[in-house]
Write a structure and sequence with these properties.
With about 375 residues, this protein is α+β, with helices and mostly antiparallel strands. It is built from 9 helices and 12 strands. α6 runs parallel beside α7 and α7 packs antiparallel against α8. The longest helix is centred in the middle third of the chain and has 48 residues. The two termini are about 35 Å apart.
Length: about 375
């Protein structure tokens, strides 16, 4: 059958495989290609269950569905792909009547994908609630701060003993520090100024800033896909996103290196990697996008402490002494303003931040 006959299946986020009467693959949509890590052309003509090492029970159910022309629904079906990857799936099988070659429609939905979507929605809700709380709190603090600073300045002018001005200067400097912190908390509420942005120019800018800030402790590896188009985004916000994430990893690497110097004399610099790719048929907030920019920021630092991994994007949460806990919060806010998503996977020796930005939104805006 022609590819045009299955064009509608390409719009689905669900993995769909069509089987003939002998349970051979007639067609697999793009989501199924991603799930099974094999192209539709390579899948064509293969008996579906031979793609897995432990699919005998499923094979029997599929044969019965062909013979009796009925469907079935399997939940939390565990299948091991050739190569060892285990997939936990919900599987819906529906028979097709008519003269066409395809006799069964097999819909596969990875449970971890559903959990990821639910987690994204929870994070969006939490992020919105946190931003509103912080915004209101920042406004409440800014007003008395101005009065506090002004009173300290007036008091300083009236002091006859110069040595007492040390104390008013402490008040003024701490008020300025808190004012700067409040301004940073309110920054994400500025509307983005969008325009064409080359993500690799952004990465190069961040790379030069990080190497200047950490000249000996970190080296940065570039792994770019040169075919990526420009995206429609706020250039300054995108620089801030990548800078905050890379700097977060660099600070962890340098901190661990100092500890290593004390313990082992390890002088080797840590590595941070910037990788860009095109991701196909990704789901962001229950919306499926045909194409998305995928930017991965990886480092070989000590990893995020387990007790902080679920709260790494929360405001004022930091695993570093003296940290404000705002860098990743701001990064998440900027990414979400652009309709994208950011997630983190961390273990000792490998931390990966994955940023997705829909390219179809970019094309529409352009």
């Amino acid at each position: 059958m022609s590819a045009r006959a299955f064009a509608g299946l390409e719009l689905l986020a669900t993995a769909v495989v069509l089987l003939d009467a002998h349970l051979r693959v007639v067609h697999a949509n793009s989501s199924a290609e991603n799930l099974l890590a094999t192209s539709s052309r390579a899948l064509g003509g293969h008996v579906f269950c031979t793609l897995f090492t432990d699919a005998q029970p499923l094979n029997a159910k599929l044969r019965e569905a062909i013979e009796r022309a009925w469907g079935f629904w399997d939940q939390e079906l565990a299948l091991t792909r050739q190569g060892g990857a285990v997939l936990t799936l919900n599987c819906l099988v529906t028979p097709i009547e008519g003269p066409r070659e395809a006799r069964l429609v097999v819909e596969l939905r990875a449970i971890d994908q559903r959990q990821r979507i639910e987690r994204e929605e929870r994070e969006l809700t939490h992020a919105f609630a946190n931003r509103e709380l912080i915004r209101n709190l920042a406004h409440e603090i800014k007003n008395p701060l101005g009065g506090l600073r002004g009173s300290a300045q007036l008091l300083e002018r009236e002091l006859e003993r110069p040595e007492l001005r040390e104390y008013t200067q402490v008040i003024i400097k701490e008020a300025d520090r808190l004012q700067l912190l409040m301004d940073r908390l309110l920054t994400p509420h500025r509307a983005p100024h969008v325009g064409p942005v080359n993500v690799h120019e952004v990465c190069e800018r961040v790379r030069s800033l990080i190497l200047a800030e950490f000249p000996e402790g970190v080296r940065i590896v570039r792994d770019f896909d040169a075919s990526l188009p420009d995206i429609h985004a706020d250039r300054e916000q995108l620089i801030q996103v990548v800078l905050n994430v890379v700097r977060n990893g660099a600070q962890a690497i340098v901190g661990a290196r100092k500890w290593g110097d004390h313990q082992r004399g390890d002088d080797a610099p840590g590595t941070s990697t910037l990788r860009t790719r095109v991701a196909r048929f990704v789901t962001i907030g229950r919306r499926m996008h045909r194409l998305a920019l995928e930017l991965q920021v990886m480092d070989d630092g000590p990893g995020i402490p387990p007790e902080l991994r679920e709260r790494v994007f929360y405001p004022l949460v930091s695993g570093r002494e003296g940290g404000t806990g705002l860098g990743l919060t701001l990064a998440q806010a900027y990414v979400q303003q652009h309709g994208g998503s950011i997630e983190c996977d961390s273990a000792p020796g490998r931390t990966v931040f994955r940023i997705l930005y829909p390219l179809d939104a970019t094309k529409a805006a352009a």
